[in-house]
Amino acid sequence: MNTYLESLVRERQPLIHEMEQYANEHHVPIMELVGIEAILQILRIAQPKKILEIGTAIGYSALRMALTLPHAEIVTVERHKQRYDTARDFVKKSGCSKQIDILFGNALELEEQVKHRGPFDFLFIDAAKGQYKRFFELYSPMLSQNAIIITDNVLYKGFVASKIDTENKRTNQLISKIRNYNEWLMKNPLYDTTILPVGDGMAISKRRGD
Ligand SMILES: C[S@@+](CC[C@H](N)C(=O)[O-])C[C@H]1O[C@@H](n2cnc3c(N)ncnc32)[C@H](O)[C@@H]1O
Fold this sequence. Notes:
Blueprint: H1 2-8, H2 14-25, H3 33-46, E1 50-54, H4 60-68, E2 73-78, H5 81-94, E3 100-104, H6 111-115, E4 120-125, H7 132-139, E5 143-152, H8 169-187, E6 191-196, E7 202-207
Parallel strand pairs: 1-2, 1-4, 2-3, 4-5
Antiparallel strand pairs: 5-7, 6-7
The protein binds S-adenosylmethionine.
The site of S-adenosylmethionine (SAM) has 19 residues, from helix 4 and strand 2.
């Protein structure tokens, strides 16, 4: 089904293709095509003015969001130096440097730097899967009232919904952490959340009204 959906996706700009190819060749995990298209459609509907992304990698999703919403500002955080440098190069090449602010460092330690760039209308969590709850708790207070939070990889290759363990202990621990996060998020009284089996699974959370 995924291949069929991918075959229907509109042709992308040459630079976007170049980034997809780079990610593939260098084994950099970027959003799956159908997953990013779903996020871009949510952005078109929600029209956020400021977006915060945790996990830039090479800037693929940040750039796709920037090209989809040319008037939105994007702040994105990456702790891997080489990926950060590559993201900067790609963003420079795209001409979107003024729109995308890439911060280098561990998102768990950049609270202050991020805070004064907010408030944000959209939070995209796409970094270390074992830390999702901490990212959510740290950055959700920096959001505007009607903000949307999307967490990627919440079904992690289908393992999260499977009853059978993998043969890898670390993977099993990670799966267990994602399950705990999903349960915590679904029960969070401040947010309405739905999990969609799109891409690697995405949780869409919306703050409840007062
Ligand atoms: C899945 S990739 C992000 C992909 C990107 N959002 C895209 O679709 O183009 C996750 C990235 O998060 C980064 N990362 C993981 N934990 C982080 C943390 N605590 N702070 C900052 N970056 C982090 C990793 O180095 C990795 O490059």
